[in-house]
Amino acid sequence: MNDRNTKERRTVRVSKYLSRHLRHQPERIGLTLDEAGWADIDELLDAAAAHGFPVSRAELEHAVSTNDKKRFAVEGNRIRANQGHTVDVDLGLPAATPPPYLYHGTVAHFMDTIRAVGLRPMTRHDVHLSADRETATRVGARRGRPLVLSVHSAAMHEDGHEFRVSANGVWLTASVPPKYLRLP
């Protein structure tokens, strides 16, 4: 295996570690997020090292800057995940007018439930939607053969449903009732 592959695998491991502790389990390493989900980078690096996963500042910056999904934001010496939290945070995202259609990637296994109740956030705070079919296809493919659902977001918005968009372009809403879905 060459050095490039080794570095890429390490970057993926660092990114997954950041996601786990900035989105889901900060307490597992003794990290405290503020109400908006921000953590002090030095505290994060110290906590990671103390829990057996030392990460250099350069590795963290590389993982953040090269992440294709732009999962993280850095401001000064603070870092947070852009969305996808299961811990209680308020990202402070303002309401936004969505495009006419948004998309959601899933797999056939979930279709009966989706037909019955629509899209729900499950363990997350919001339902995640993509602005394009290609992104939704990639999201769905993480769990198997992807199915892409079209969401009539303009109609939802007109009917009073609120949308927000994260720093990395993921559209967020509380739920999507079945009547706004175009199913495959």
Automatic annotation (TrEMBL):
Entry's EC annotation: 2.7.1.-
Molecular function in Gene Ontology: transferase activity
InterPro entries referenced in this protein's UniProt entry, alphabetically: Ptrans_KptA/Tpt1, RNA_2'-PTrans_C, RNA_2'-PTrans_KptA, RNA_2'-PTrans_N
EC top class, as a word: transferase
Similarity-based family: Belongs to the KptA/TPT1 family.
Bilayer-spanning residue ranges: none
Protein name, per record: Probable RNA 2'-phosphotransferase
Keywords, in A-Z order: NAD, Transferase
Organism, as annotated: Streptomyces monticola
HAMAP family the UniProt entry points to: KptA
Alphabetized Pfam families for the sequence: PTS_2-RNA
Function: Removes the 2'-phosphate from RNA via an intermediate in which the phosphate is ADP-ribosylated by NAD followed by a presumed transesterification to release the RNA and generate ADP-ribose 1''-2''-cyclic phosphate (APPR>P). May function as an ADP-ribosylase.
